[in-house]
Amino acid sequence: MANLKLACVLFLCMIVVAAPIAQASITCTQVSKSLIPCLTYLKSNGGSPPPGTCCQGVKNLNGMAKTTPDRQDACKCLKTTASGISGLNPTLAANLPKNCGVNVPYKISTSTDCSKVK
Prior knowledge:
The protein is built from 6 helices and no strands. The chain has helices at about 1-20, 30-35, 40, 50-65, 70-85, 90-100. The chain starts with a helix and ends in a 19-residue tail after the last helix.
């Protein structure tokens, strides 16, 4: 009987510890760090392709945002961050994933409704 109680307690502990890990979401810090190499490009006139480090960040961010909640959180972070950067070229921002060879399932824009991102 004691072994059964111990097994139940261990099982509950595993659930309590694993639950926050399973629900972990992408953070704005992760989003920002991924896209910092793109800032100079996004403030330019777009006369050249995005730098390789920028595209690597876009690819990394896309890889981190696998679930709908992750993509929605990333979208919210992008919108918040973009609104605080003066001189950001919205056309370059909208085309950044495509220019880096990454398919993002929503429009990159400050007008995007992140709650509708799937």
